[in-house]
Amino acid sequence: MSNLETRPAEQVCSSGTADDGVQILGAREVPLGGPRAMTVRRTIPQRARSLVGAWCFSDHYGPDDVSGTAGMQVPPHPHTGLQTVSWLFAGEILHRDSVGSLQMVRPGELNLMTAGTGISHSEESPSGARPPSLHGIQLWTALPGTALDVAPHFEHHGDLPVSDADGARVQVFLGGLRRAGQDLVSPATTYSPLVGAQLDLEPGAELHLEIDPGFEHGLIVDSGDVRLEGTPVRPSALGYLGPGRRRLVVAAGAGRPARAVLIGGTPFTEDVVMWWNFVGRTHDDVARARADWMAQIADRPDGSTTYGDGARERRFGQVDGYASGPLRAPVLPDVRLRPRTRPA
C-alpha cells in the first residue's frame, strides 16, 4: 500500500526507549487519497516511537463495506529500502508490480514485496464478484544497510505455520515464534531478526509465547478486550515492550473473542529517513529516489499521468494492467530530511 498523503510529514525515525512496563501508543486516522477515500489507523511511525525492531510503518484498516464501491484502489507508486507486508483479516486484494507479479492475497496468506534498490506496484480490490468486506493491516520493515542494494522481488506464501490450542491460535507470517516447545517459522525472506504473527484468542483465553530476549515487541490490537502482560491495549492501539523478556503473555477478556498482530525484532540501530514511500539513510537518498520516479512519469493533456519513454527500463520499472496512470510524488519539504539514530 502507498502512503497517499499529499503532504507527507518528515519522519525522523528512532527506536526510542521505554521502561520495563507496557508503553501504549494510540493510532491516528489518516485518509488515504483525501477525505472521501479509505481511512486507516496509523500507529507507527509517530513521535513517541517510530520503529519496533525493523518494523517502521503500520496502517490498520477496516472492516470497510466494499460491496457497492470500488474498494481499495492504489495506483502504481514506487518504494525503496523496505519490505511491504500485506496481511488481511477479510476480503481480497490484487497486487501488480514492476517485476511482473500478479497475485491475489486473501486472509491467512502473505504478500511480501522487497523493494531493495527500487520497485513499483499497485493494489486494488478485484473487479466483479468479491467478498463484501475489506479488513487488514499493511506493514513495512526497513531494510538494513546490507540489503539496500538487493534486487527487487516479490513473494507470496499461502501455507504458513499455525499453532491452535487452549483457545488461542497463532499464525506466523514473518520470522519465527516458539509456543509450548513448538517452533513456528515462516518461509518468507527476511533481512534482519524479526517476527510478525496474527493472534486469535477465544473469550477468556490466555496465550503464553516464548520470545527472543533480544527482541522488542509491539502488539497491534484489532478487536476484543486484550491485555499484554496484564496491561489493557484497546483496539487500534499498539502496546510496546522493550527487550529483556523470554516469555510474553497475551490474554482476552471473558466477553468476546480477540484478535491482534504481534510484531517485533532486534532494535534497529541504523539511521533511517522515511518520506512518502521511500526509506533511505539520508535526505539525498530520498531526493534522488523522488527525482528518479518523477523522471519516469509523463503528464497527459487532461491532467492525468502516464509512463514516459523507457519507463520499463528505469529504476522503478512499469506496472502493467492497472486502469489508471502512476501516482505523482509529493513535493519535498523545504528543509532537509534528518535521520536520527537510536538513543543511547
From TrEMBL:
<dbReference type="InterPro" id="IPR012093">
    <property type="entry name" value="Pirin"/>
</dbReference>
<comment type="similarity">
    <text>Belongs to the pirin family.</text>
</comment>
<dbReference type="InterPro" id="IPR014710">
    <property type="entry name" value="RmlC-like_jellyroll"/>
</dbReference>
<dbReference type="InterPro" id="IPR003829">
    <property type="entry name" value="Pirin_N_dom"/>
</dbReference>
<dbReference type="Pfam" id="PF05726">
    <property type="entry name" value="Pirin_C"/>
</dbReference>
<dbReference type="InterPro" id="IPR008778">
    <property type="entry name" value="Pirin_C_dom"/>
</dbReference>
<dbReference type="Pfam" id="PF02678">
    <property type="entry name" value="Pirin"/>
</dbReference>
<dbReference type="InterPro" id="IPR011051">
    <property type="entry name" value="RmlC_Cupin_sf"/>
</dbReference>
<feature type="domain" description="Pirin N-terminal">
    <location>
        <begin position="39"/>
        <end position="140"/>
    </location>
</feature>
<feature type="domain" description="Pirin C-terminal">
    <location>
        <begin position="198"/>
        <end position="294"/>
    </location>
</feature>
<protein>
    <submittedName>
        <fullName>Pirin family protein</fullName>
    </submittedName>
</protein>
